[in-house]
Amino acid sequence: MGEPLAGLDGIDWAGLDHAYGSAEDVPGLLRALSSSDEEKREAAVGELFTNIFHQGSRYGASAAAVPFLVALAADPDTPERTWPLYLASALAIGYDEAHLPSGVDITAWREETARLRVTEPAAEKRRLDAWVAEAANEQERLYREAERDHFDFARVLRLIEADLAAYDAVRAELPTVASLLGDGDSEVRAAAAYTASWFPEEAIATLPALDALLDVEHDPDVIAHAIVAAGLLDGRALLPRFREHLAGAEPLPRWAAAIALARLGAADAPVIAELAASSASSPDTDAPEVAYLEGDLRLYSALALAELEEAPPDAVDAVLDGLSRTSDMESFPMAGAALRLTFGTPAVPLPRFADLAPAQQRTVRTIAELPPESWRWGNLLEILRAWGLPTVHDECRRYAGLA
């Protein structure tokens, strides 16, 4: 294999930007990923996640770094080869929670980017003014006004261009990523499956490689990643294989099969039962992790159930049980899933609590009874605002009839 960082110095890094300005420090950080010094490697990957992937944003240097990250992952001499691969995945899609449980809608992404490229700032302002005028109530209007007033057209266009450039840079490296599905390191195989799962335009090439991997794979973690990836890539030809794993004894592949089957519209009673059991569970700190949603199987299961046309009452109860066991940052995505599952669409204006359906009442009560550390997050308040619910903890409790 050739030198993974060949050509690194041929790029004008100083002329590229990241979150803190010039990207002239990026070459040194990429080189540090091959260092024999563990502390140096950890510091470098931490800085790269901060500067070329700052809170999910990508920059000019992000796409330029991708070929070197994938080459480092493919080099057997690189320590912690999954680190650069997971960083490349993050550069491609941002945070995966934005794309789950359905996968990347690349068509809509490309269309929105194309729309902004030909839109005049004044026209975008008029569109946002109309959006504010369409607000259903005063609270929603104030929220939309704040969003409009902070909208910077030039910055948004620059960021969305950088996001798509990074995505396409990783897409160009997918042949190398696919080759890592046969790597001798099981963690690298799992990371490769995760990375490949975000590129539906390449599904024709990727799905046979995932199918071949599942033919020979014995590691449950790798099997689970490959199954979820195949589901996200619309791998309907693998439905019989998913059914086999759903009936199997290994917990993680069984869960992954339920996720994939739900994604493909094949959520029958056994699928829903598996997802419900995972939705209600408490986190198992000793359980093997999947990369999706940082290993939060409970949240992923709840999101999958929330996508169903109609979930049975026991599945709804399971999601609400799971929500009641959350705290802090875990609460707001689970709350969003529970609201979608029980309300379908926001109830605007908000009816009297007594007029809500029983499952809706339990959802509101469960959210109102979340601990204070959950309510301190603006993310939760944004979700509640979107659904017309009170965003002050005491007011939400009063609405739900709680002391």
Structure description:
- The structure is a single chain.
- With 403 residues, this protein is mainly α.
- Helix content is 62%, strand content 1%.
- The chain has 22 helices and 2 strands.
- The protein has helices at residues 26-32, 38-51, 60-74, 82-93, 106-117, 121-133, 138-149, 153-172, 174-179, 186-196, 203-216, 220-232, 239-246, 251-263, 269-280, 297-306, 313-324, 331-343, 358-368, 372-375, 378-386, 393-399; strands at residues 17-18, 21-22.
- The chain has a two-stranded antiparallel sheet.
- Helix 10 (186-196) packs parallel to helix 12.
- The protein is globular, with a radius of gyration of 23 Å.
Brief sketch in words of this structure:
The chain contains 22 helices and two strands. It is mostly helical and 403 residues long. A two-stranded antiparallel ribbon has the order 1-2.
Return the average pLDDT rounded to an integer. 94
Radius of gyration computed on alpha carbons: 23 Å
Q: What is the H/E string?
A: EEHHHHHHHHHHHHHHHHHHHHHH
Largest sheet: 2 strands, antiparallel
Low-confidence stretches: none
Count of helical regions: 22
Q: How would you write the strand order of the largest sheet?
A: 1-2
Coarse structural class: mainly alpha
How big a fraction of the residues is strand? under 5%
> How many individual β-strands?
2
The shape is globular
Proportion in helices: 55-70%
Distance between the termini: 67 Å
